[in-house]
């Protein structure tokens, strides 16, 4: 083979190697380019916003990472824009939870970011996840501290009309809704209208009847039964009813029937009861449907079932009452047996705890037209509009005193109660097994004072009592102080409440130093604990 052919063969071999190496370089170059392409592609405009100078704001909403925005941004501006977009998409009112945002700013040369529009969309999507209940227009009816809501004014009117229809059997009354002119805000109030009848005020119905329109004596001379139309003549609500517009969740809006039931069903409520003359605790508890223990527990002024109550005293009781009460009056004709109120003759020389019946009562009978006022189904007042008496009643006549009886106080300061009033085990020979007073153990020489003002009727020695002082008080009461070491008053001496009358001791039939205090009413021993203040 010639040298020229050898050289051509070597050149071909070298060229082939060179082309192979160049192909391999191209392959590596393409691989490297692909690697850098995929690594750097998020930062290029093909995706969202390229980051320049490395400024990035990362946003976290309610603990959830939403992403990053290039540069500095106002997250609250983006939030309000998202809220506006959400509102524009919905025709109803939507409430969402108030989100908690966390932002952080950093520098990053290569980072995946979002445009502001993308971030606004992300915030809106997250808000939709926290969407609360759908709110719709409604009307809230307020009665005292209770609130019910219905869909529209027609339901309000239907609800109130249903409440009065229970007592308006003839359907003569209607409910009109009108703006309250005295209020600056939009408050609607109900007005009850009837054929020729005025809406009553609650106080008018409770405390006065239509008899105010008549002078009884003149009316009886000019009227007859035919002049009166029977039936419900006035009706109203005992509480103020206010109606206002509101936006509420659908679940809180009731139907007219359910709202009426919510307002008129009987529920246990605490009310104030004013004690009337002749009331007893047992009668009050029975009428209120309360156990005696519950009545005592609700009133600090009551210690037990024997606690004293006085007319006009206010007691807390629970009674089944509706939230909304209907007050109404009805004119009706009745034939009834009736009594007159008790008459009292005052005696300025007697104490108030002394009463004597001078005349026994007897019932009368009459044919009458009366107006009966009620709250719901409970009668509160009754007025006679016209009557024909078949036979007259006779009122009970009671004579009673006007002088307030004296008060009594403990005769010593301190002391330890050792023997109360009543049966006891005989403490020593010669002592009584039925204790007629109260004993307090106290050192000899303790000051003894008059329990109440009066006149000393005995001062000296008495069998069993040792040294004693007796004081007579008005109204047949007498106090006795026994086992004294020294007497400091004389018979006939007038003493005031708290005057020093003796020193305590251990004289007579005694088991040790103490004071024996006794009270007698018309000569009979009574329990001093009932009289002491």
What descriptive keywords fit this protein?
single chain; 533 residues; alpha+beta; 4-stranded antiparallel sheet; 9 helices
Helicity level: 10-25%
Share in β-strands = 35-45%
CATH fold-level assignment of the largest domain: Membrane-bound Lytic Murein Transglycosylase D, Chain A
Shape verdict: flat
**What's the overall average pLDDT, rounded?**
82
Per DSSP, the total helix count is: 9
Distance between the termini: 152 Å
Annotated CATH homologous superfamily of the largest domain: LysM domain
How would a crystallographer describe the biggest sheet? 10 strands, antiparallel
Radius of gyration (CA) equals 48 Å
- Main CATH class of the largest domain: Alpha Beta
Number of strands: 30
CATH architectural label of the largest domain: Roll
Q: By helix and strand content, what is the structural category? A: alpha+beta
Outline the structure in words.
With 533 residues, this protein is of the alpha+beta class. It has 5 domains: 36 residues; 75 residues, no CATH class; 127 residues, no CATH class; 135 residues, LysM domain (Membrane-bound Lytic Murein Transglycosylase D, Chain A, Roll), CATH 3.10.350.10; 115 residues, Glucose Permease (Domain IIA). It is 22% helix and 39% strand. The strands form 8 sheets. Strands 19, 22, 23, 24, 25, 26, 27, 28, 29 and 30 form a 10-stranded antiparallel beta sheet that branches. Strands 3, 5, 6 and 10 form a 4-stranded antiparallel beta sheet that branches. A 4-stranded antiparallel beta sheet has the order 9-13-16-17. Helix 4 packs across helix 7. The protein is flat and about 115 Å long. The chain starts with a helix and ends in a 7-residue tail after the last strand. The N terminus is likely disordered.
